[in-house]
Amino acid sequence: MIGQDELQHIREQVDIVDVISSYIPLTQKGRNFFGVCPFHDDNHPSMSVSREKQIYTCFACGATGNVFKFIMDYEHVSFMEAVAIVATKAGVELNFHLKKTHSTSSKYQKLYDCYSLASKLYQNNLHTKSGSGALEYLKKRQIDDACMKEFEIGYSLKDGQVLTNLLLNKKYEKTVLLKSGLVIENAYGLSDIYIDRVMFPLWDLEGRVVGFSGRLYNDEKQFKYINSKESEIFKKGELLYNYHRAKEEARKKKQIILMEGFMDVIRAYTIGIKNVVATMGTAVTKEQASHLKRLSNDIVICFDGDAAGAKGTASCIEELLKLGVTPKVVRLENDLDPDEYIRKYGASAFQNKLNNPMSTMDFKLLYYKKNKDLSDSADLTSYVKEVISELSKIPDEVMREVTLKKVHDESGLEISFLREQLEKLEVQEVKNVSVPIVKKEKDKKETKYEKAEKALLFYMLRDGNAIRVYQEKVTFMPTKVYRNLAREISCFYNEYGKIELADFMTYVSDHEMIEEALSSIVTLPLKEEAKEEELNDYAKVIREYTIKSEIKRLQKEMAGASLEEKTKLATRIVELRLGDKKYDK
Ligand SMILES: [Zn+2]
Known about the structure:
Layout (H helix, E strand, L loop, with lengths): L3 H10 L2 H6 L5 E3 L2 E4 L11 E4 L4 E4 L5 E2 L1 H9 L3 H12 L18 H18 L5 H9 L4 H6 L3 E3 L5 H8 L4 H7 L2 E4 L2 E4 L4 E7 L5 E7 L9 E3 L15 H11 L2 E4 L2 H9 L5 E3 L7 H10 L3 E3 L5 H16 L5 E2 L8 H8 L1 H9 L2 E2 H10 L7 H15 L5 H15 L3 H18 L15 H13 L3 H11 L5 H17 L4 H7 L4 H11 L9 H28 L3 H20 L3
Parallel strand pairs: 12-13, 12-14, 14-15
Antiparallel strand pairs: 1-2, 2-3, 3-4, 4-5, 6-9, 7-8, 9-10, 10-11, 15-16
The chain binds zinc ion (ZN).
């Protein structure tokens, strides 16, 4: 297994601020960086990341840890997998086997391997003689070689046996082949599912091929696309096309653009727009919405220009609003999708569209107005009601006022009346909807001893002096979890001659109880440093408790004891009382 020193080395090669900001947007305020905590449902930046201490702390839910812990909890991987991911980011060679299979549950490894082999085969086919028709089609659609390479576009041969045979030769079982959805079984045996098609691989969030979309390129009469069926590794509603590539770019540009189809994404790439992902269908799921939120809080929805695209945009806005994100919207004229729009009007026209998105509310106003005649009373009534209901979901006060003004202009209704309607609706909604509230640790009454234990631990985690005070003057914490934590800190200090919080977190990462205690200590609102005398005061309070309980115990014992024993116990009690005094000098 990997040693503490090596773990420390790996941890020191990365900056936690860089790592966390590759997952969630962070803003610097003073010495620390702040972002929206991904571990509880929130839209306030309650997570702080310290470059100095190399740890993160959420003041709302209490999540805290070092870079390994963050990756473990964010990517849902084991500790060793998290170490492997950090090592990869740091460019550190690992000596243990996990490196190759990081975050891959071996359970599905065969499926991943089948897809990987298939993708390589298809790419290769495209540049053979048989692939010339497909290649020509792609060129005609203005997809150049660089783009084909980037998106690993390929071609499935007319001979429907090639992939099947390749996989069988590699000794994959028939069940795996059928499970993958790349192979079907009919009366003649096994054969490839994709025949004579342009092949677009689909990736999961980590960039592994998990499916394909196969497009016919010479026969418009049949279904244009066949998508892989859902499998254990391919769940359409859980992934976003191009997520793994767009991640970095979205962070740099501080914006993510959402489209419907993968061809839109590929087209956007050809004109240099790389912070873009696609839903592969118009209904955005909750999972997809939260992936988007992780990429950036500035989300631009640019779906197809048709009615289905407008409907999809509206439902996507809903999902994002639920997560506290208000996206912006781009609508394309003449029912065009982004791919068509760019080909028809060119890069700069499209870029211009992206640079001037409309607000969610403006989109909604347009959306609700569609097919309505506002001079008709019934239409106007339903329009005003829809907008008011929409407004109740928007927390932005300015946006509310601006919109009310617009509706007033359109409807002639008094602003005060509209506002009243809005308020009425909100009262109702508060009654109906239970707002999820972050569970805070119950403020149970803490004794002064517990407070002193926690405070001393707080300083023990940052100051060797406090540890010495503990070792010399306390040695025993009354509360069990704190006692264990203090012992671990003490051991760590003896072993390494110093205390480094981020490394200590690694040290205790397999003790769940201690980790929990640690989290409650790290998030205490105490000042950074304590004076020697303050530390001594904490120690005194803790000691006092220990001695008091011991005296109590002895006094109980005295009750049933013989005279001789009583004398002994009494002496012991006096010693305890005196013993405590000697520390005060
Ligand atoms: Zn949190």
